[in-house]
Structure formats: C-alpha cells, structure tokens
Write a structure and sequence with these properties.
By secondary structure, the protein is of the alpha+beta class. Among the domains are: 121 residues; 117 residues, no CATH class; 123 residues, no CATH class. The chain has 23 helices and 15 strands. The strands form 3 sheets. Strands 8, 9, 10, 11, 12, 13, 14 and 15 form an 8-stranded antiparallel β-sheet that branches. The longest helix has 31 residues.
Length: 611
C-alpha cells in the first residue's frame, strides 16, 4: 500500500510484498489468495495509475508467482500435495492482470458523457443513493439480528463447520462482529464521504464474502476443495477489527473521542500486563509442576508413573533423530500420548493395527525396517487377549522398565525373524484381499498374464506368493499362482481392509475397510503372509471411494457430509422470522426504516410537484 500511494521506495516495498507472499505460501497457504485479493482491491481504489508502478508491480507479481509455482510443483512431485496449489501460486499475477484490466475498462467508460452525467450530475439521484445507503445499513443490522436469533432458538450447538450456515457468521465473529456491524451501520447513516482506506477494507470484506460463497458452492457441487476455516471466521477478523476501530474515529466530539482513545490505551496496557504476566507464569517451572495438561477436552493428569516412564525414555535418548515406540493404542489414548514428552513418537493407527494383529514376526520386522522402532510399551492393566505374536512374546519375557502402570520392552527382545522381501522405499500399504473387474496384466518372475474383460480376486498365500482366481469374459474360470508380481488393472479395483504408511491415502487417514478405485491402477506385491498382502509403488489414475462412511471430513464423501451437516444444523429463515423474537425484531426495524426514510418520500413528492 505504501508503494502504491508513495513512490519513495517502490522497489523495496514491492520486494517486501513478494517476499511476504512467498513466506505465506510456504507457511499457511490458505492466506495466500487473500493477499492477492487485497492487491486486486488496492489497484481498484487507487487514484494513481502510474506506469512506473504498473511495470514494477507486474515484474514483482510474475516473479513471486513463478517462484511459488516452482515450489508447488516440487511439493506435488515429492509429497503429492493438492494440485489447487498450482492455481494459488499464480494468484499475485492474476490479481495484477484483473486489477489493471478492470481499472482500464472503468477509465474508458468514465470518459463517456452520458455515464458521467447519470452518475455524477443528477443531484436527485445522489439523494436517492444516500437514502439507499441508509436502507442497506439498517438491512445489514436486521440480517445480523436474525442470525443471532437463529442461533438463540436452535436446539443444538454448531459443530466443526464443514460448510457455512447462513447464520454462523454472527456467532463465529463474536463480540467483534457485533461492534463491526453497528460501526458499519453508523457509517452508512453518516453523510460524510468514505475515505479510500475504509473503501479498501469494505471492498476486501465483500470480496471475501463472495470467495466464501464460491468456496461453499464449489465444495458441494464439484469437489471438496477446503473447509471454510480459516477463511471463516479467522481471516475475517482483521477486517472486522479495522472497521470496528472506526467507531472511535467517526465521533465528531473531540472531548468524547479523546476519552475513548485514552480508555482504549489504558485497556491495552492492562491487557499487555496480564499477557506478560501469564507468559511469565507459563515459562516458569511452577506452571509445569502444578499444571495437569489437557488433551481432547479432558485432563491428562500425568502421574508419578507417567513421569517415571517419560524420564526413562528421555535418559535413553534416541540413537536416530526420531525413534518410535510401538504401543497397543492410537496416539489420542493417554497411555500412548505420554510417549511424546520424552522426545520419541508412536506409530500411526494403521501401523499399530498391523503390528498388534500380526501372527508372523516378519511383519513386525518390515515395520522396523521402514521406521526406527526401539521400544514396545504396554499398560499393566492391558487386556492381552489378542492371539498375536507380540502378545505371545510379551507373556514370556521380562520388561526393561516397569512400574505400577507401564511395562516397557526393547524390540530386540522379540527375536524377530528377518525377511529379504522388503519394500524399496519406506512407504507401502497392506490389504487382506484384492478384487478386480476389467483388464488385468500381471508380470511375475516367470510369466506374463493378460486377462481382458475379466473379474476375480487376488489372495495371499505367504512367502511372497499370491493366488489369482479369475472369471474370463467367456465365463471360463482361471486360477493360477504368482510370486513378487507387478500388476496393472484398467477398470475397477477394490482393496479390502487397506492400511498404509503416510505415503498413501493420507486424506482418509491411511485406513479403510474397503476402497473402490475406478480407472487405471498399477502396483507391485513385494511380500505376502497368510492373511495379508504387502504392496509398494502403488499408483492410480482415476477416482476412488472409501468405506465405511467416515466420522471426519473426506473428499469422497463431501457432498453427503455437507447435506447431513445442513440437515442437523440448518434453521429455516422463515421460521426465524415468524418466531416471537423475529417478529419483535422485524417491527423494530420497520419503525426505524420509516423514521429514517420518511424524508425520501417527501423528496419524491416534491420532485413530482416541480415536474
């Protein structure tokens, strides 16, 4: 903004903008389009149209977009990130192009005499527009009040917002939103000219609302791009604060304005004192001695046994940078989460399920090959009634650490059998069975099989062998075995009881009872056991749907989950309007509109008499 309105240090200011955009892109990519949106608005409202600024800004936006695009392509090739990052990386250049284009078109239109006369010369029209501004201000307060009433009369609380409800802004904006609405309404009732800085904030606010509507529309009708959070409400809060701050500036009384400013300064000082005091307490040792800690809305309450385990693991510092402790529960369980303060970590849920259910020690060996696992942690009160290799060995060996709550074992105590059939990378997935329908090409160490228009299943036999049971297009059945196979399938592929490392299907938390993939798939089976197939180099080109229906947001179920969310949380605006609170609020607003707009009727009547 400083570079736009003052060319004192144009190159430096625009370089800071480009560096800031790249930093935001690397840190919190959701905020990157909003910076580009702010740039677009800034170009629209600015009075200057300096060619020097245009050349400099064009160069900076193209360079920053190019750098971000290279970063996005690199992240996609390495981690398989969302391809929408490509579009986000181009937003500075797009903001520049659209902003300059709209500005140029507006400058051409404003030169036409007819448009100039209609917009700027008719005092009667200007008076109507002023009254329309008053009407819109009152209407804004009315809608905001209906939002609050809707939240007040609804039977349930709003859960995590996978979609934006029509009344949720009034709730999620909180007290700041209330001050924002009344400040905006007061500015609308004033006859003073709106300053450029305030225009910038208002236009940016409106465009963010448009972006929020477009995001919800795209999520529902096309594919789920992202949750409305943090766009709503987090990224609206700075704009709300900027508008709310005008409540101090628009008061004409210098004495009252001075008192308000002094009250704000005193309040800010008090808040800073409390903030620094709280920070000092958090950083002190006494806080950590007395604080119980919180996890999933319930206290973790570290006990003496917890601290003993943490200290033991911490003293036996990891050999590698990051080592894992194999537990019997997922990370959200306190008996597993207690590992983290020691500097170690626990396995993801799907890998825990593989290890705990494995009957062959070589499966655990594969996990230890992919990840540096050093310890196995068991709660003393754990019900070890699972028929698995881990449980059988735990009952026969002594722990290296034990107290009244935990038993800790070294993985080396389990005498794991080794296998040479290992993945080429650290990422793999496992399935109990594979079902296919379409064209299958299978290549193993000895043969190549091509099955067209067929359907069947692939079952594990152990020692890297699989059994393929297929039904051909002519109805004939074909069964054969293969070893260390590379498979390509064009058609439908179903993976039964899939579990994977973080390299595959991260968006569904690497686990599903059943995944149906439509399109072209290819993968390599590098090992099998009696009840499990191990797969690497898995790729697919197409779409998939995972089951069962998730309790968290997943892209393949977005539309169904949004519909369910609306069904549970939606309040009909007509029901809100006809409620007792809605009727009273409507009558208040009608009286206010009549009071403020009555002079408009007199103005129109007087204009007719003059005619």
């Amino acid at each position: 903004m400083r570079a736009y309105f003052g060319n004192s240090n144009l190159r430096g200011d625009l370089t800071v903008f480009a560096s800031g955009f790249i930093q935001v892109f690397l840190g919190h990519i959701t905020e990157a389009p909003l910076l580009a949106l702010a740039l677009f608005v800034l170009i629209l409202i600015g009075n200057k149209f300096s060619s020097k600024f245009i050349r400099a800004l064009g160069l900076v936006t193209v360079i920053s977009s190019t750098i971000c695009l290279i970063i996005a392509i690199s992240l996609y090739s390495i981690y398989g990130t969302n391809r929408i990052f490509f579009l986000i990386s181009l937003t500075p250049a797009l903001a520049f192009i659209f902003g300059i284009s709209v500005k140029y078109m507006y400058s051409l239109m404003s030169k036409h005499t007819f448009i100039h006369v209609v917009i700027y010369s008719r005092s009667f029209l200007n008076k109507i527009l002023k009254k329309l501004k008053i009407f819109l201000s009152i209407l804004l307060v009315y809608i905001y009040g209906l939002m609050l009433i809707a939240y007040w009369i609804r039977p349930k609380w709003i859960n995590w917002s996978i979609a934006t409800l029509w009344y949720s802004p009034a709730v999620e904006w909180g007290f700041l939103g209330l001050v924002f609405i009344f400040t905006l309404a007061r500015l609308g009732l004033e006859e003073e000219k709106i300053q450029d800085g305030f225009k910038f904030v208002i236009i940016l606010f409106i465009l963010q609302l448009v972006l929020l509507v477009v995001l919800n529309y795209w999520n529902y009708y096309h594919f789920y791009l992202a949750t409305p959070y943090p766009l709503q409400p987090v990224l609206f809060l700075p704009l709300l604060a900027l508008v709310a701050s005008q409540g101090f500036a628009i008061n004409k009384s210098k004495k009252i304005r001075y008192r308000l400013k002094m009250s704000g300064i005193i309040t800010l000082i008090i808040l800073l004192i409390f903030s620094f005091g709280s920070l000092d307490h958090v950083l002190s040792a006494s806080f950590w001695k007395t604080n119980s800690g919180w996890w999933l809305n319930s206290q973790l309450n570290p006990s003496h046994d917890d601290y003993e385990l943490i200290n033991f693991l911490y003293k036996n510092s990891p050999i590698s940078v990051y080592e894992f402790v194999l537990t019997f529960h997922h990370w959200e369980n306190p008996s597993s989460y207690v590992v983290y303060p020691s500097g170690m970590a626990i396995l993801s849920g799907p890998l825990i399920d593989i290890a705990v259910s494995a009957n062959d020690s070589r499966e655990i060996y594969i996990l230890s090959y992919a990840l540096p696992i050093r310890y196995v942690l068991v709660s003393v009160n754990e019900s070890l009634n699972i028929n698995s290799y881990l449980v059988r060995v735990i009952k026969a060996i002594n722990p290296v650490f034990k107290n009244s709550k935990y038993m800790l074992y070294l993985l080396s105590q389990f005498n794991l059998s080794e296998t040479s059939l290992l993945p080429n990378s650290k990422d793999f997935l496992t399935v109990d069975k594979i079902i296919f329908e379409g064209n299958l090409t299978l290549m193993d160490e000895n043969d190549i099989y091509n099955l067209y228009n067929s359907k069947g299943e692939i079952l594990p036999l152990g020692e890297g062998n699989i059994l393929v049971k297929a039904q051909l297009a002519n109805g004939a059945k074909l069964n054969f075995t293969a070893t260390i196979s590379t498979i390509k399938i064009r058609g439908n592929l179903t993976l039964i009881k899939m579990k994977s490392t973080w390299g595959y299907f991260r968006e569904i938390k690497c686990s599903a009872e059943r995944i149906i993939i439509s399109g072209e798939s290819s993968f390599k089976i590098f090992n099998t056991f009696k009840n499990r197939i191990y797969i690497e180099s898995f790729n697919y080109d197409g779409k998939y749907k995972a089951y069962p229906f998730p309790t968290y947001l997943r892209q393949d179920y977005a539309k169904e989950m949004i519909e369910y969310y609306w069904k549970v949380n939606h309040e009909n605006p007509l029901d809100v309007l006809t409620s007792p609170y809605g009727i009273v609020w409507t009558l208040i607003i009608i009286v206010l509109i009549v009071y403020k707009l009555a002079p408009l009727y007199m103005l129109i009547a007087k204009n007719r008499q003059n005619i």
